[in-house]
Amino acid sequence: MGTTIFTVMSALATEHNAVNLGQGFPDYPMSEELIADVNEAMRQGFNQYVPMQGYMPLREVLAEKVQGLYKTIVSPDTQITITPGGTYAIYTALTTVLQPGDEVIIFEPAYDSYVPNVEVNGAIPILIDLKFPEYKIDWAEVRHKISPKTKMIMLNSPHNPTGAVLREEDMAELREIVKGTNIFICSDEVYEHLIFDNIPHQSILRYPDLLERSFVCFSFGKVYHCTGWKLGYCISSPALMQEFRKVHQFNCFSCNSPQQVALSKFISNRNSYLSLPSFMQQKRDYFIRLMQNTKFKLLDSKGSYFICATYDQISNESDTNFSIRITKEYGVTSIPVSVFYRAGTDNKVVRFCFAKKNETLEAAVQKLINIV
Ligand SMILES: Cc1ncc(COP(=O)(O)O)c(C=O)c1O
User: Fold this and answer.
1) What is the pLDDT of residues 109-132, one digit of tens each?
2) Which terminal Cβ of the chain has fewer Cβ within 10 Å, N or C?
3) pTM summary value
4) 6 CA distance to ligand 1 centroid (A)?
5) Ligand 1 centre from 222 Cα, in Å?
């Protein structure tokens, strides 16, 4: 296995002094209040291991949040575990249930850890393309690809890299498909609060019948603009969470204590998450406005902090060559979407991250305007 495209493109961005809209992380500061809360927690002496499941007051505040947002009661004691990031939660969920030879349905384009995480467990990824250009799930194809070996379906909404989001109709299809089967679900909801245009987030947590068979994975780093914290959590049924913890206890055991203490205080203010959709929507809308002056055609982004663009008015190069060339010649870095497909499917689409300061977005678009 080689180096990921994110490493390659970021190195290229540095080498050519390019504005990096490739990798998904904010370049603006995180909340001062949350930083102060971590400092305070450290001064108060929260510097030793917290329990393996996570700091209880944080799990309690998360359970309250889930009840407030999705009307589902989850037990902080038996259903929530704090993890070192969303990726780890996903890996742990897969490792908890997969046996060699099991099949796992993955929709592509897909976040880059899914396929390797399935394969390292000896299981087989069954890949289904999201329908371009809306990147919707073709549920008829899902029905067709389900077999007696299907162990799990992986979901991701809001979706990286496309910004697509699942709708109520999708959840109805999913419920119908898994009813009466032993299929598990791993739902990657790390962009939970980054959803726009007043669309309700279709969390698995809204559906108790789905939660029974699901691992729902979240990331504090993604929603609180501190990706470097690598802190997240997983919610599941009591029975599945018990198994999840068997893997977790010998892998990481216990996560960063002062951050958990700080988050338990910070999240108890509902505004800490209710304000996030409009904050990020403003960034999306600003980027869309700026990009109108370029020859790129933006696709729809309803969530996450990514937006995809086609460039057929500029070139018919492969998306990878195009991304490399515009980094070198015009000084803006994007990510070619073909890298999110195992087979390298190239719809000639690149992904931009708009979780950036307005000045960064302006500087990037100033350069993109020059591409004719
Ligand atoms: C879809 C998706 N899932 C998970 C993650 C990782 O989250 P974390 O940094 O908390 O591991 C990312 C980060 O890019 C992501 O885009």
Assistant:
1) 999 999 999 999 999 999 999 999
2) N
3) 0.97
4) 13
5) 7
Asked if residue 102 has its Cβ within 6 Å of ligand 1, the reply is no
- Position 354 scores a pLDDT of 98
Residue 128, C-beta contacts closer than 8 angstroms, at least 6 positions apart: 105, 106, 107, 108, 137, 138, 141, 142, 145
Q: Which atom of ligand 1 is nearest to the CA of 159?
A: 1
Chain center to CA of 50: 26
Q: Which residues pair with 104 in a beta bridge?
A: 125, 152
231 CA closest ligand 1 atom index: 10
Closest CA to 216 of 232, 201, 231, 204: 204
> CB count, 10 Å around CB of 334?
28
Q: In this structure, which amino acid lies at residue 271?
A: N
Q: Nearest Cα to 93, choosing from 170, 148, 151, 50? A: 151
Residue 108, both tokens: 């592509």
Whether residue 181 has pLDDT greater than 80: yes
CA distance 114 to 106: 8
Query: What is the pLDDT of the chain when averaged over all its residues?
Result: 97
β-pair partners for 187: 155, 216
Cβ–ligand 1 contact at 303 (below 6 Å): no
User: Which tens digit of pLDDT belongs to each residue from 63-84?
Assistant: 999 999 999 999 999 999 999 9
Bridge partners, residue 308, by sequence: 351
Q: Is the pLDDT of residue 57 over 90?
A: yes
Q: How far is the CA of 162 from the centre of ligand 1 (A)?
A: 14
Q: Is the CB of 230 under 6 A from ligand 1?
A: yes
Separation between Cα atoms, residue 292 and residue 95, nearest integer Å: 45
How does DSSP classify residue 49? P
CA 104 to chain centroid, in Å, comes to 18
Instruction: Give 272's Cβ-side CA count (13 Å radius).
Output: 21
The per-residue pLDDT for 1 is 65
Handedness of CA 323, 327, 329, 331 (dihedral sign): positive
**Ligand 1 contacts CB of residue 221 (under 6 A):** yes
In the chain, the percentage of residues whose pLDDT exceeds 70 is 100
d(CA 257, CA 49): 6
Tracing tokens 């990510």 back to the chain, one arrives at: 335
The residue among 280, 265, 121, 281 whose CA lies nearest residue 186 is 121
